Q: What sequence folds into this?
């Protein structure tokens, strides 16, 4: 509206060109084929999936970030496929409309931790959707629901956070979509999962002579690290070179500022024992190792692993060489500079370096 | 069709040919040269000559059961544990940990003994257990008769001790080996024989496949899962619900164990038959099955009237929300205790069984009668042989089973109808019907 000036003539409106843009339409357009290809033909379900994907990219409750996994199902019987022998807790039913996604997360996101995930489905012949939580991961070495999703005729979409303002959608048809609510180049699609896998490959290279056992351990370690890294405030992880690992505790001076464990934590051994023995004692041992690793990741400094599945130490603080000091990017934070130093030392002291920043961005470099 | 010719996938053992009127211990033991030493044979004859019937029967029984257990253990104790649903048996377990009634059941399943031999051996076990637990005064007043001891000796020799090798077990082991070393194809002729075999063989083949999938690793596991994917669709329509639950339960267990190859294989199998209705929502059924196994172990062992009470109490306290995979075993155990045996039933244990049976719903009774009873050897053996359990059964039917319940299984329906009759000849008719159903298990 024009404003009148003190002389009585009309002054131009300060804002003539006003536009608003939402990702809603473009997200719907991008995901429509994916959702229909997953086996869903209901427009309300399509909207629900889009809304959930957008919310999960950066969901917070009371300013605490939450990382729920959400399974959208066409048929409640699919839960028997995804999570055999596990419990399901129905929270309620709802009509699927514009507010459904927010309500779903409001009521269930806080419950979806420690192996629990959210499910939402519309039973046959009913207008409303049933939702609740179920045990997507029974315990540390069980097979998770996301792993058995593929190669089935059931319509299932898994929606989960996979990094800084990033959500990932997977279905049972080996299709995957990544939604990134940033201005990053969409060709730069490496995500938390990709970076963790790179780290885990380096951390399990010599864990066992059996490829099957290494593969099992890699799958376990990947899941564990993703679960532990998502809620933490930022982390640095390094896989040290074999020479360094075998010299512990007599490490090079450049790595001396750390807590080197006199007896390393044998994460690989605990995992294999749990898988072989399948008893309460070995599962308790494995879970106790996981708690320790979680605490070490939450500590300042670098978590130190070797290539055999051992945790060698934590709270490593790197001293830059003169060259590293000169080359340091003083605009980046302390974690960024430490990561740059670690990357510089790959091939000499480290086999791999991983970083997760406070805002959730991840990076990983490893020896080829 | 005789016990030896059941048209199954592998042949079963025949009975050793001993003349029906042979009753001289000194002659009978000679047939057992394959398993007994000269010293053993002499001891048996001496014991008979000195009228030590209880002692010689216990000795003969222990030799027979040990022989059978040793033969079974050659298949691998972990495999035996899987077949018996005994989670406590590992590869290093001693064969003596297999209960006597379990070894008879499994031996019959894999064709080491015929169903008639199985019935006779169960009676022998019952006799030995009964006399072993008698207090000294009663034992003096009612000693074992020579005829009973001869019967026990003859049964054990003809079925077990007289067999130089168990051809049925050898063939079964070879069949099992094939399932884990050869990948069968859909047009394999052997698959046709499996699909058209008597139900008993179908059930045992399924148990073998699932136990292989749960216990093997590496290439043998891949063969076993591949064969499961091919074989299960052929069998699914014929499988009764307890066996379908078995598949779903196995899927839940391998998933919980983190066994990716087995999980993937069983998932594909269940998808192909749309069998996810039979995947349990928890693994609680293991607790129920273990408790039921303990009840049965106590029921068939010495001093059962006293020893049944504790495990039956534990089973009753687990409640009547019995998970699907465990219903068959829990009912078998509870009914076994409630019905008792030739000599009677344990009052205290029956009271606990009563607690469970009296609170079952109509649909649970219907499930048991329609799906489980036709292959429940334990209960059918009792109904086919002993008057006291039959009378208890008629009482149970009148008290607990709704009058409007009609089982979907024809044989069970006929048995139930006979159970409700009060005519003087109904006990004999019921016995005959139970015997017929029992004999049909392997056909």
A:
């Amino acid at each position: 509206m024009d404003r009148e000036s003190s002389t009585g003539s009309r002054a131009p409106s300060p804002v003539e060109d006003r536009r608003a843009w939402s990702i809603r339409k473009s997200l719907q357009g991008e995901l429509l084929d994916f959702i229909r290809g997953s086996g869903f033909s209901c427009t309300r379900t399509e909207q629900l999936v889009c809304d959930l994907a957008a919310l999960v990219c950066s969901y917070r409750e009371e300013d605490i970030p939450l990382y729920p996994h959400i399974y959208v199902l066409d048929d409640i019987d699919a839960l028997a496929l995804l999570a055999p022998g596990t419990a399901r807790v129905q929270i309620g039913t709802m009509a699927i409309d514009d507010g459904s996604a927010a309500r779903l997360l409001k009521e269930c996101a806080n419950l979806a931790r420690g192996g629990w995930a959210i499910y939402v489905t519309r039973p046959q012949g009913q207008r409303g959707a049933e939702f609740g939580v179920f045990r997507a991961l029974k315990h540390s070495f069980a097979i998770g629901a996301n792993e058995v999703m593929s190669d089935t005729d059931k319509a299932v979409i898994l929606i989960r956070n996979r990094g800084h303002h990033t959500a990932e959608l997977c279905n049972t048809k080996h299709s995957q979509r990544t939604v990134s609510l940033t201005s990053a180049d969409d060709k730069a699609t490496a995500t938390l999962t990709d970076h963790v896998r790179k780290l885990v490959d380096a951390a399990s290279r010599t864990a066992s002579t059996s490829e099957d056992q290494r593969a099992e351990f890699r799958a376990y370690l990947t899941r564990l690290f993703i679960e532990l890294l998502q809620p933490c405030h930022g982390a640095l992880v390094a896989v040290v070179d074999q020479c360094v690992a075998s010299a512990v505790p007599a490490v090079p001076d450049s790595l001396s500022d750390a807590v080197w464990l006199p007896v390393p934590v044998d994460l690989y051994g605990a995992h294999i024992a749990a898988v072989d023995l399948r008893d309460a004692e070995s599962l308790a041992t494995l879970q106790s190792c996981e708690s320790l690793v979680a605490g070490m990741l939450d500590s300042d400094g670098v978590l130190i692993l070797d290539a055999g599945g051992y945790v060698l130490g934590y709270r490593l603080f790197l001293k830059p060489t003169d060259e590293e000091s000169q080359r340091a990017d003083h605009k980046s934070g302390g974690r960024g500079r430490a990561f740059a130093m670690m990357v510089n030392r790959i091939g000499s002291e480290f086999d791999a370096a991983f970083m997760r920043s406070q805002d959730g961005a991840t990076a990983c470099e490893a020896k080829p | 069709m005789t016990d030896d010719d059941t048209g199954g996938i592998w042949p079963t053992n025949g009975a050793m040919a001993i003349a029906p009127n042979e009753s001289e211990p000194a002659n009978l033991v000679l047939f057992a040269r394959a398993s007994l030493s000269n010293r053993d044979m002499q001891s048996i004859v001496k014991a008979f000559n000195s009228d030590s019937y209880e002692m010689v029967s216990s000795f003969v029984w222990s030799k027979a059961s040990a022989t059978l257990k040793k033969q079974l253990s050659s298949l691998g104790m972990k495999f035996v544990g899987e077949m018996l649903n005994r989670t406590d048996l590992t590869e290093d377990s001693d064969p003596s940990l297999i209960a006597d009634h379990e070894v008879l059941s499994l031996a019959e399943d894999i064709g080491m003994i015929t169903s008639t031999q199985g019935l006779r051996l169960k009676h022998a076990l019952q006799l030995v257990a009964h006399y072993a637990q008698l207090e000294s005064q009663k034992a003096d007043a009612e000693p074992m008769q020579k005829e009973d001891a001869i019967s026990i000796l003859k049964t054990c020799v003809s079925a077990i001790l007289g067999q130089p090798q168990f051809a049925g077990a050898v063939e079964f082991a070879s069949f099992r080996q094939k399932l884990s070393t050869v990948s069968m194809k859909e047009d394999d002729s052997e698959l046709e024989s499996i699909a058209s075999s008597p139900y008993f063989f179908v059930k045992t083949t399924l148990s073998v496949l699932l136990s292989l999938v749960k216990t093997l690793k590496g290439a043998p596991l891949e063969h076993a899962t591949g064969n499961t994917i091919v074989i299960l669709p052929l069998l699914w329509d014929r499988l009764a619900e307890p066996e379908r639950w078995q598949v779903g339960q196995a899927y839940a267990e391998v998933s919980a164990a983190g066994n990716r190859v087995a999980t993937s294989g069983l998932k594909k199998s269940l998808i192909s038959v749309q069998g996810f209705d039979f995947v349990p929502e928890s693994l609680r059924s293991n607790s129920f099955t273990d408790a039921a196994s303990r009840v049965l172990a106590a029921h068939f062992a010495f001093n059962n009237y006293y020893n049944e009470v504790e495990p039956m109490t534990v089973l009753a306290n687990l409640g009547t929300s019995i998970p699907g995979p465990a219903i068959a075993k829990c009912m078998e155990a509870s009914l076994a205790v409630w019905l008792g045996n030739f000599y009677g039933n344990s009052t205290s244990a029956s009271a606990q069984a009563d607690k469970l049976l009296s609170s079952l719903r109509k649909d649970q009774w219907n499930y048991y009668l329609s799906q489980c009873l036709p292959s429940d050897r334990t209960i059918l053996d009792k109904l086919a042989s002993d008057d006291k359990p039959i009378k208890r059964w008629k009482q149970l039917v009148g008290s607990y089973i709704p009058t409007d319940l009609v089982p979907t299984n024809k044989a069970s329906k006929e048995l139930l109808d006979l159970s409700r009759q009060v005519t003087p000849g109904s006990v004999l008719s019921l016995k005959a019907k139970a015997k017929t159903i029992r004999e049909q298990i392997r056909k």
